[in-house]
Specification:
Blueprint: H1 11-30, H2 38-50, H3 55-62, H4 66-78, E1 82-87, E2 90-98, H5 100-120, H6 126-148
Length: 152
């Protein structure tokens, strides 16, 4: 099996980079009336999946510095999308949790994205959609391993 060399400019890799950027742009354009920037969407989605987290834990999930995430959480709190509660394990710390409003907003944002992608895949045979999803999942997993240092 041929594998890609890290030091070689590969047209297929460049095409993947272009596709990733295009997908992000098209989703942002296709989600009308959204007041959620990609960072807010990601944080709400992470809190929905992980449950309440400390800001430091949320920053670790995002691979961002704590001060950046803290500012973002403050904006989400002002919008009513998250709340803070004392950490039962350390009363000096606080946990950030998704509010009912944040859960509703995330549900709406997911529905918009799902509708957009469903429309884009409408003419694809079901088996191709399944294979595409499998390959994307593998791709994300491999990138995650690379960025977390598991492949070293």
């Amino acid at each position: 099996m041929d594998t890609l060399r890290e030091d070689a400019a590969d047209p297929a890799v460049d095409a993947v980079i272009g596709a990733i950027h295009s997908i992000g742009r098209l989703i942002r354009q296709g989600v009308t009336g959204s007041d959620l920037d990609p960072g807010s969407f990601w944080m709400l989605k992470t809190l929905a999946k992980q449950g309440p987290l400390r800001v430091t834990e949320l920053a670790g999930h995002a691979n961002l510095d704590t001060s950046t995430v803290s500012r973002h959480v403050t904006q989400l709190e002002r919008a009513g999308f998250v709340g803070r509660t004392p950490d039962p394990d350390d009363r000096r710390a606080q946990l950030v949790e998704l509010s009912d409003g944040g859960r509703d907003r995330l549900h709406s944002a997911m529905a918009q994205r799902r509708a957009l992608l469903t429309a884009g895949l409408r003419d694809w045979p079901a088996e191709e959609v399944t294979e595409f999803a499998r390959l994307l999942d593998r791709f994300v997993s491999d990138i995650d391993k690379t960025t977390s240092g598991e492949n070293e």
